Amino acid sequence: MMKIELTRMTMEEKLQAMEMLWDDFCRNAQSLSSPLWHKDILKDREESLAQGKEKLIDWDQAKNEIRDSVS
Q1: How many angstroms from the chain centroid is the CA of residue 11?
Q2: Sign of CA dihedral 56, 60, 63, 34
Q3: Which of 16, 25, 41, 52 shows the smallest number of beta carbons within 10 Å?
Q4: At a CB cut-off of 8 Å and minimum separation 6, what does 48 contact?
Q5: Picking from 13-22, 25-34, 52-61, which range would have the lowest pLDDT averaged per residue?
Q6: Is pLDDT at 13 greater than 90 in this prediction?
Q7: pLDDT (tens digit, 9 = 90+) per residue, 22-44?
Q8: Domain boundaries, the chain
Q9: Using CA of residue 23, residue 25, residue 31, residue 34, what is the dihedral sign?
Q10: How far apart are CA 40 and CA 10, in angstroms?
């Protein structure tokens, strides 16, 4: 088992590690399968959209809102 000392890593190192993991996931996406509960979550979200309880926003707007909420 690989042990990572997260408490010793800088934020930049942690972000770089995350990017490396996501890149690897993307290269091997065909071998990944979503858990069954993802289907239920997606169904609930589609229903919320159809009922007007939720709305879609542009991806750039979503990223800005996330940045604003954590800064």
Answers
A1: 18
A2: positive
A3: 52
A4: 54
A5: 25-34
A6: yes
A7: 999 899 888 888 899 999 999 99
A8: 34-71
A9: negative
A10: 37
